[in-house]
Amino acid sequence: MLFDLKEAKKEAKRKIESCTKIEDLDQVFKEYLGPKGKIRQISLSLKKLPLKKRAQVGKEINNFKEFFEKEIAQKREKLLERKEDLEKEWIDITLPSKKIFLGSLHPLTILKRKIEKIFQNLGFSLVEGPEIENEWYNFDALNIPKDHPARDLWDTFYLKGSKNLLRTHTSPVQVRFMEKNFPPFRIFSVGRVFRHEATDARHEINFYQVEGLMVDKGISVANFKGVMEEFFDRLFQKKIEKRLRPSFFPFTEPSFEVDIYCPVCKGEKDCKVCQGKKWIEVMGAGMVHPNVFKLSGLDPKEWQGFAFGMGLERLAMILFRIDDIRLFYSGNLKFLTQFK
Fold first, then answer.
1. Global confidence as pTM
2. What is residue 267's predicted lDDT score, i.e. its pLDDT?
3. Most buried of 93, 123, 165, 337, CB within 10 angstroms?
């Protein structure tokens, strides 16, 4: 009986195509080409055939082997590719899910919102102004003459090709508001200011200021002290000792610096917040200068008021115990994720 090559190919191909695993394919290979496989048995029986038939069947067996090995190799390649794909796609549903990384508010944003809420609860309205100013609002209207050192190029960023500049403080917001609104009013502003200063652990060329103004009849320093005491007690959520020191600002008279007793230590030398000085300067303030009222179109004999300004970063450094202002603008995730 001659080896039926055509029928054997059909049967072998059908079995190879039905394989879904490498193990199944190995079994089909053994069935045909294994030590006890079909082809092995036929090959052993060749010696019983006449020489002419033996040559014919041998040729058919060799043709089948070539066909079979080629089909096996192609199927194996497909199964291996599929196995790799499945391994890549495989998910162990018994494992706990990966923790989702959530972003957090920037520490300055956290403090800014807190300060805004405190002042709004104290009856102050939030107002805004442009970061690009002119000399009138940034200097002249605030009683800062042309020969004042604040106008020096080393302190102020002037914009090339124009008479405008980047505001050095948020006080221009007060002037702009007084020009268009009639007292009484209580306002505050939070915004960026820019100064040409050397950058170090305590200074940056770009920082935030919190500015406030209260104008009414009969306003005195006592009103300012009451507002500031309430503000700092709410900000630090405890009673904070404060003091006023005489100072000078062109736009206020009298003027004073506001210090708070270090809320972290009791004057310890290694304190990162006060460096052992106990008192920390946090604010400049004073009664609005009569000239500022006049330049804004208000009668200083009828209206009185106080103004104040403080650095948002300085308060954040105290509140969060941060010893380098540059960390706020570094974009360092290890630093920022602490405030989640």
1. 0.69
2. 62
3. 165
